[in-house]
Amino acid sequence: IMFHSTLALSLLLIAVSSNLAMAIKKEKRAPQTLSRGWGDEITWVQTYEEGLYQAKKSNKPLMVIHHLEDCQYCQALKKAFAENEEIQEMAQDNFIMLNLMHETTDKNLSPDGQYVPRIMFVDPSLTVRADITGRYSNRLYTYEPQDIPFLIENMKKALRLIQTEL
Questions:
Q1: In the chain, how many domains are there?
Q2: Helix, strand or coil, per DSSP, at residue 159
Q3: If 127 and its partner were Cys, which of 29, 84, 123, 137 is the partner (CB 3.0–4.6 Å)?
Q4: Is residue 61 domain-resident?
């Protein structure tokens, strides 16, 4: 009888400790902080320089999202962006992705001002595509949640322009 209870106890301890180990392992894999809520399945680069390097290397366009944490328009766009499967898939498969909460020194990324949210595309040839604009003439590179279909079209355009121009 003693043997059985010892065996049961050690099996119980093994079960508990392996569950604990799994819980700790899960804990360690922190959510991908670079996504900042724009899509955790997407691989994000950390800096504009890294983005340019990866774009050139992979021959994929770089998509730069300028946003701020306390901007309600950014939050609304982020939610729509993160919930859209087509965008998430295209972003992960066909683009180098960067979201920034500060301005870069590259003035080409703010051709009409430093407002947020602002989404711009950079070609693998490292040319900022000022010709891929949103729907608003006063803020050419801004998008609102209802503009998601338009943003998808612009993502496709960014991909198409590479193939035809390079």
A1: 1
A2: helix
A3: 123
A4: yes
**Residue 155, in any domain of the structure:** yes
**What confidence tens digit (pLDDT) does each residue in 11-51 have?**
555 555 555 555 555 444 445 589 999 999 999 999 999 99
Domain that holds residue 106: 48-159
Q: Has residue 108 been placed in a domain? A: yes
Output the DSSP codes for 12-50: HHHHHHHHHHHHHHHHHS---GGGTTS-TTS-B-SSHHH
- Cα 42 to Cα 34: distance, rounded to the nearest angstrom: 9
Q: Could you tell me if 103 and 110 are in contact, meaning their C-beta atoms sit under 8 angstroms apart?
A: yes
Domain of 114, CATH number, reads 3.40.30.10
DSSP SS3 for 96: strand
